[in-house]
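Q: I have two molecules that I believe assemble together. Could you output structure tokens for the complex as a whole instead of separate predictions?
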Amino acid sequence: MSEELIVKVKQMIIDSLRIEGMTPDEIDSDAPLFGEGLGLDSIDALQLVVAMEKEFGTVVPDAATGSKVFASVRSMAAFISENSK
Amino acid sequence: MICFMFPGQPMARTDLPASDPLFLDMAACCQKASGFNPLADDGGTSALNESVKLQLYGVTMSLYRHELLLRQYGRPDLIAEHSLGIYPALAACGSISSRDALEMTGRIGLCLATMGAVREYALGSVIGLTIDPLESIVTRNSVFIANRNTSHHFLLAGERDNVRAATLEAEAAGAFSVGLFPCDAPLHTPLVAEISADLRRIVADYSFREPSVPLVEHIGQKELSAGDMPAFLVDELCRPVFWEQTCRTLRARGVQRFLEAGHGMALTKFNRWIDSQS
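A: Yes, here they are, computed for all two components at once.
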């Protein structure tokens, strides 16, 4: 997957979760998004599901899939790369 | 226009600002009012169960964060509350003291816990399903929608086995995620009415002053007067929390900025979802 896609995913996270004062550079591509790292939760997860569908046309169907997809920015980009329409 | 909003019960006791003198003062106030010390691992008392300790921790955190917000932003134009947030919200609008808010939280929590001695209850979170399929599911499983937080975020309450069955059915119907949490009482459901007389007796021990900042409640989105407060404190435990409607009403009244006074950012995230759907 391209570095360009990784930057796009980071920007989507910042925009959809309205994280103020953060730039894509400040997000570690391999850090966990939930719990540690950005500290996201199940409310954030649904917001990311909707954003991914809107921006990339990829559907995360359930929390079990989501826990793998949202493991890190890199895993999100890989899922988008494999599943985008 | 700025609104301070007070969230409901946290799910865990984490992120204690244990070195902040302001929090130490609030924790001491909590211990005097309820016997519970938020800074002690075991809460400093065995007389309270974990649910009540969580409630007292949540209210202590809200009172602490409220003081921080006041220092940073000054007095808000409006105050809103969600569920347990009513107790610190009453203190924040000047209707009762912080000590009374903490004492009342502990006494009402203990009263609610009597329901759990007879039956096992639970709360169930359902994320990603809309209201129409969920209403059919709750009816079939004899549980209730306790919190209508957004168009896609709900909390169910009822007897534990029924809530478990309802969350599993919601998951099968397409909910993105579900969760089950034990609790003492079926909060925000008509089942709480069986202890309403006891709750009324507790609330009657307190005096309420007129709010110095308008306090908008989560059922009908009305401003509470001092005279409304005793009945509301009992009624709100028997009826659902309508947070989405509360957020939309406050936006329509001109609120441009919501600031959350409590543990975590759940209400801020619900508002983000609500605003994104507008």
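A: One point stands out. Chain A has one domain: 3-19+28-83.
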